[in-house]
Amino acid sequence: MTWNEILTERLPAYGHRNWIVVADSAYPDQSSPGIETIVSGASQAQVLETVLRSLAASKHVKPNVYTDQELEFLVESDAEGISSYRDQLRDLLRGQLVRVLPHEQIIRQLDEAAQMFRVLIIKTNMTVPYTSVFLQLDCAYWGEAAEHRLRAAIQAHPER
């Protein structure tokens, strides 16, 4: 199957707490049993755009987007193409809340999640460091405010 077919097959089964990572070509093949790594052979922008479009069409999940803090500090002399990539990424992620964390902190979250939940890593042909985009899936039809109200109601009525 192609990477796009795998994404299409996996997405209906995924829910909140699953992750999809659109990774650069040097991203490692992790050994946790919950992590599946596939090689797309496609560009970072193409894969990210397809994944985001698939998530936007989904009625059950939406992404919490994470990028590496290091991405903001890269310079052209060390990472050729980084300026145009950052511009492209800004366009692709327009309208998304993007959380920026140190790379190792995101990897720790991903590793912890993979202990219980599935993670799909789609490697691209990107050869610029710290360009991976991490998408932690969340419930699209139930928000944090509703969950807070529900927990407050349960706490107010422990006898039920």
Walkthrough of the structure:
This protein is α/β, with parallel strands linked by helices and 160 residues long. It has a single domain, classed as 3-Layer(aba) Sandwich (RbsD-like fold). A six-stranded mixed beta sheet has the order 2-5-1-6-3-4, sandwiched between helices. Helix 3 links the parallel strand 3 and strand 4. The mean pLDDT is 96.
Oligomer: single chain
Structural class: alpha/beta
Fraction in beta strands: 15-25%
Query: What's the helix count?
Result: 5
Instruction: Round the mean pLDDT to the nearest integer and report it.
Output: 96
- In CATH, what is the class? Alpha Beta
Q: Could you name the ranges where pLDDT drops below 50 across 5 or more consecutive residues? A: none
Please outline the major beta sheet.
Answer: 6 strands, mixed
Distance between the termini: 49 Å
**What's the order of the H and E elements?**
HEEHEHEHEEH
Please count the beta strands (DSSP E, at least 2 residues each): 6
- Helix proportion range: 25-40%
Radius of gyration, CA atoms, in whole angstroms: 17 Å
Q: How does CATH name the architecture?
A: 3-Layer(aba) Sandwich
The fourth-level CATH homologous superfamily is RbsD-like domain
Query: Which overall shape is indicated by the principal axes computed on the Cα atoms?
Result: globular
Strand line-up in the sheet with most strands: 2-5-1-6-3-4
Number of domains: 1
* CATH fold topology: RbsD-like fold
